[in-house]
Amino acid sequence: MMDTSKWVPPVYNDYGITQWGWRVNHRENFKVSSNAWIGSFSCIQAKYGVEVQDDVIIGQSCVITSYSMISGKSGKVTLKKGCKIGAQTTIAPGVTIGENSIVGANSYVDKDIPDGEVWFGTPAQHVNDIADMKKDKPSIYPDNPNVPM
């Protein structure tokens, strides 16, 4: 869980750009938890709704769109609790990223990702389950196995 003791809500300028350099169009349809982190240069198009839940991390330069002028697709995008989105990833309209799931950098996500899975690629594909990864390697720090993955 992230430390939210010093969390500051976003402040938007006239162009929808926050003090951290990420942008939101249709802010009235954008919901962000008070303990989510969104990387600079990310663009969020929330015409049909974008929800970012607790403990979500979005890397730099991501695109999250609830409407595509190219395909004509539209729909709410939901990033569920604890999911992590790698830098330069694009999430298409109508997609839900499951709780605690991970999307690798430079991915294109055009379908729902279930809870607890790891996906990456263009288009993104399932590559592993978080539970299986924790069995094989319970910590990312070999010298300190008490730090969870």
Task: Please describe what this structure looks like.
The structure is a single chain. The chain is built from one helix and 15 strands. The chain is mainly beta. The chain has a single domain (23-136), classed as Hexapeptide repeat proteins (UDP N-Acetylglucosamine Acyltransferase, domain 1, 3 Solenoid). The protein has a six-stranded mixed β-sheet with strand order 3-6-9-12-14-15. The protein has a five-stranded parallel β-sheet with strand order 1-4-7-10-13, with no helix packed on it. It is globular, with a radius of gyration of 16 Å. The model has no long low-confidence stretch (mean pLDDT 90).
Assembly of the depicted chains: single chain
N-to-C SSE string, H for helix and E for strand: EEEEEEEEEEEEEEEH
In the CATH hierarchy, the third-tier topology is known as UDP N-Acetylglucosamine Acyltransferase, domain 1
- Tell me the number of structural domains: 1
Please give the alpha-carbon distance between the first and last residues: 12 Å
Shape: globular
**CATH architecture level-2 label:** 3 Solenoid
State the low-pLDDT regions, or none: none
Q: Cα-atom Rg, whole angstroms?
A: 16 Å
The CATH superfamily appears as Hexapeptide repeat proteins
By CATH reckoning, the class would read Mainly Beta
Largest sheet: 6 strands, mixed
Which whole number gives the mean pLDDT? 90
